[in-house]
Specification:
18 helices; five-stranded mixed sheet; transposase activity; Transposase_mutator; Mutator family transposase; transposition; about 50% helix; DNA recombination; about 400 residues; alpha/beta
Length: about 400
């Protein structure tokens, strides 16, 4: 029996009466079905023409296919010997184009819940997708993530920032806190690049050592300046792998930690007296301001002053550089901005059923964030010139000079 052809006049009338162009009952859906079936029939005809045996047509197999214009039932032609392998829509394929997958991944990368993804796909295409389908689509990111995690890196990075963020992940039937270790680099072109994403039971200098070893194994042979938080043993972990690297401890972390030990009634005044220390024009001026801070507050808060003194070598590294380099290294704000992006993605999720469910979401977020990292750091050419002087010879090969 000849199948009815798509009626353009009828379609036009339907559009004029307000019927949608796409979706489950969209005007275009029958046309896409007709064109797809015609293409499959042509594929089978070509297959049979090349077949020297007595093979012939053998009816149709029905299956439901999801497309960008809606869902429809497709009649896939068969051959008697079962040797026909359709290419347009393969035997177990249920989606006509990657458009739906791309839409699911796009929504997923914005932190959209599975429930809301289902709603949006239903609204856009008239297709009901299950949570299992969404999981299968988003799981396509996992091999890509693994490849990204093991990719080769540049031989030298002028700056890197290292920090961790914590999430609840289900492990042996209960939710436990695990640390995501994030490394953000600035390459010799002045562009930001997320170098790695690692997961561990907890944040610690010992694990950071394994992370840095992985960087070295992936090709990073030199780092000029590393910005880190105040984790004990962090500096030693870096210097064990990269002994020439200058380590700048994050001043903002130090300030936050200091204020925890200052009484609320004194915090405003203490901060006013602390500003001349970290905002000083020179290291000498900063040390003079630190002396004044100790003279005024040392008796009240000896733990705070002692912390600044003990960590001063790594807190004061940035004073030797001009303002446009200081802005990059004195804090881990750049990597904290990445973590803020992560928190936006995960804010509706109390915990994750497994490690991959978290990692693939963060990776999707990285892909989104990195699209905006097209411009180099401000005043990069000046910064690079200064770095070439401070770190004589170490940038020559990377800059081909």
């Amino acid at each position: 029996m000849t199948k009815p052809q798509f009626d353009f006049n009828e379609a036009l009338e339907q559009l004029q009466s307000g019927k949608g162009l796409t979706g489950k009952d969209g005007v275009l859906t029958p046309l896409i079905k007709q064109l797809t079936e015609a293409a499959l029939k042509a594929e089978l005809d070509l297959h049979l023409a090349d077949d020297a045996s007595a093979n012939r047509k053998n009816g149709y197999t029905k299956k439901t296919v999801k497309s960008g214009v809606g869902e429809f039932e497709l009649d896939t032609p068969r051959d008697r010997e079962g040797t026909f392998e359709p290419q347009l829509i393969k035997k177990h394929q249920t989606k006509l184009t990657p458009e739906i997958d791309q839409k699911i991944l796009g929504l997923f990368a914005l932190g959209t819940s599975y429930r809301d993804i289902r709603f949006h796909i239903e609204e856009l295409y008239g297709i009901d997708v299950s949570e299992a389908t969404i999981t299968a689509v988003t799981d396509q990111l996992i091999p890509e993530l693994k490849e990204w995690q093991s990719r080769s890196l540049d031989a030298i990075y002028p700056f890197i920032g290292l920090d961790a963020i914590h999430y609840k992940i289900k492990d042996h039937g209960r939710y436990v806190s695990k640390a995501i270790y994030t490394i953000l680099g600035v390459n010799t072109e002045g562009r930001k690049e997320l170098l790695g994403l690692y997961l561990s039971e907890s944040e610690g200098a010992n694990y950071w050592l394994s992370v840095l070893t992985d960087l070295h194994n992936r090709g990073v042979k030199d780092i000029l300046i590393a910005s880190v938080d105040g984790l004990t043993g962090f500096v030693e972990a870096i210097n064990s792998i990269y002994p020439q690297t200058e380590v700048q401890q994050c001043v903002i972390h130090q300030i936050r930690n200091s204020m925890k030990y200052v009484a609320s009634k004194n915090q405003k005044e203490f901060m006013q007296d602390l500003k001349p220390v970290y905002r000083a024009a020179t290291k000498q001026a900063a040390e003079a301001a630190l002396d004044e801070l100790e003279a005024k507050w040392g008796a009240h808060y000896p733990i705070v002053i002692s912390s600044w003194r003990r960590k001063w070598d790594n807190l004061s590294v940035y004073f030797k550089y001009p303002e446009y380099i200081r802005r990059v290294i004195y804090t881990t704000n750049a990597i904290e901005a990445v973590h803020r992006q992560f928190r936006k993605l995960t804010k509706t999720k109390g915990g994750f059923p497994n490690e991959n469910s978290l990692l693939k979401l963060l990776y999707a977020g990285i892909l989104n964030a990195s699209k905006k990292w097209t411009m180099p750091v401000q005043n990069w050419n000046l910064a690079l010139s200064q770095l070439a002087i401070h770190f004589e010879g170490r940038l020559d090969k990377a800059l081909d000079i």
